[in-house]
Write a structure and sequence with these properties.
The chain is about 35% helix and about 30% strand. The protein has 2 domains: about 35 residues; about 90 residues, no CATH class. By secondary structure, the chain is α+β, with helices and mostly antiparallel strands. A hairpin with a 5-residue loop joins strand 4 and strand 5.
Length: about 130
């Protein structure tokens, strides 16, 4: 009886472990550590109506989801707390930082007369 109980528990634990393995691995990559969250490098992209309005390139920062909302909270490179909500994407860059960072540029629509795509094309082609 004890062997059967042990075998059943082992089977349940193995099933749980393998079924949640990918989720667990994704959580570690997202947090940057096995226990707790560590600072990391991030690309944060904010959109409005399909138009990119802001892009932050963050080095060694925390980016966290705000509880009870669709918002995100982080501190920008100048030390300013930023709360962003709505249509956005936050990418934690764990590998190939220079390569991934080179695909983006810091941008804030309220300070620029060109769209992000126009500014990006100009910065990569010189035109």
């Amino acid at each position: 009886m004890k062997k059967l109980l042990f075998l059943s528990l082992s089977l349940v634990l193995a099933t749980l472990m393998f079924s949640s393995c990918a989720r667990f691995s994704n959580q570690i990559d997202s947090d940057g550590a096995l226990i707790g969250t560590t600072k990391g490098d991030w690309i944060v992209i904010k959109q409005s109506g399909g138009v990119i309005t802001d892009v932050w390139k963050l080095e060694e920062q925390f980016v966290q989801s705000e509880q009870g909302s669709d918002g995100w909270l982080f501190v920008d490179q100048n030390g300013n707390p930023v709360h962003v909500g709505g249509d956005m994407k936050a990418i934690r860059v764990n590998k190939n930082k220079e390569e991934i960072f080179s695909n983006y540029m810091e941008y804030h629509m309220e300070h620029d007369s060109l769209s992000y795509m126009q500014r990006y094309r100009r910065s990569t082609t010189g035109k």
